Amino acid sequence: MNTQTLNTPLPAAAPAAEGSGAAAPTACVYSIGKRLSLLLALQTIIGLGVLLASIYFATFMLFKSKQEEHLRGYAAVLVDVLKTADAEGGERAMANKLAWLGERQPGTFVQMLRADGTELYRDPSPTFDPQRAPSRELRFAVPRAGGGEPLQGRVVLDCTSDAQHGRRMALLLIGATLAGGAFVAWATFWRVRCSLRPLADLAAQTRAIDASRPNQRLSLPVPIEELQPLIEQFNGLMQRVERTYVQLEGFNADVAHELRTPLANLIGHTEVALSRERSVAELEEVLLSNLEELQRMAGIVNDMLFLAQADRGVKARRGAPVSLAELVRQVVEFHEAPMEEAGLGMDIEGDAMLSVDEPLLKRALSNLLGNAIRYADPGSRLCVRILREGDHGARLWVENTGPEIEAAHLPRLFDRFFRSDASRCELEKPHHGLGLSIVAAIARMHDGAAAAESGGGRTRVGFSVTAPA
Known about the structure:
The chain is built from nine helices and eleven strands. It is α+β, with helices and mostly antiparallel strands and about 475 residues long. α1 (about 30-105) packs antiparallel against α2 (about 160-195), α5 packs parallel to α9 and α6 crosses α8. The longest helix is centred in the N-terminal third of the chain and has 72 residues, at about 30-105. Keywords: ATP-binding, Cell inner membrane, Cell membrane, Kinase, Membrane, Nucleotide-binding, Phosphoprotein, Transferase, Transmembrane, Transmembrane helix, Two-component regulatory system.
């Protein structure tokens, strides 16, 4: 369905931004499996480290408590023994008792000092060096039997064995922490690789999709909840791409078909004209016929260029608010001759003041009126309805009485080169099937949409426009 169109320039597209000349930085590629493995290994090391450090600290406190208890017990024994020895024989008896106890307590060192600081007793040959070896010391006082100044003593406990056990335990805990982190890293990496195997399958399926198999879709043997939305979105995208690809192939075929007819006519007329000598009048008639075909081809090419630019997202230029009813009257005047020839009347209902691109809107209305005139019953009346939609929008309908359009054809009515049936492609009503596609493009450029309805012997086709707030 098409009609003659008003020659209207398309708004120029915005110039593309110039590149800076510098290459875009390449994003750093990383492995999800390796990153998760390292992160979980680090968390494991930190968690185990804190736990095992707490265990080591608790063990250290147990060792310390045991050593202090041992020192307090041994010091209490020394005090009791020295008090008894002092009552029985004085300092000599105390020294003998200390020497006797020192032989039976290896791993300890005892030293006793008088009140004036002189040494009363010192273990002669301790089994460890009290100054260098790990040890713990406890000082105590021993009261004298005669009431004199008490003796001052100190006992040192050898902690070498406990220190060695502590070092071994620390090394064991550190080794366990590192081993636990390494095991978690390996197990996580293996598990992540197994879990990401469906992604590798999807990548392989994606690589297999090409132009020869646009109908191929992604799928998994076992659906995965996290991947299913991605698969559905991708399959939906592929479905749209396939539909666009099919439409593009059909569009190319239709373009070739539409251009082939005028080209064949041009070639045929030219060959006939050159087959024998012609008069000036005959050659002029051939040139006029060729000019008509060339104008038809130019119209097809111009319409295709318009649609191509509109598909790139060009928006309509907005002017001052104008009366849509006044624009309709101007377009109706342009179509007065064909309307009078068909005996058609015209009604204009409603109005709206909107900021629109006047030349583009006139072009869309001209296409709709041309279609309505072409298929309206002779002697009937056409109607252009202007309905207000909100504060910044309006919808324009062009109605005519005539053959109905099948419901199955309505969704495709605005496709390029679409013709619903042979009855709408008569030779006496030539058109190339881009008029309604241009209407839909102009509606999109005004942030609107085209629509069509047919029933009860009436057909109405129109579009909506939205003005900036």
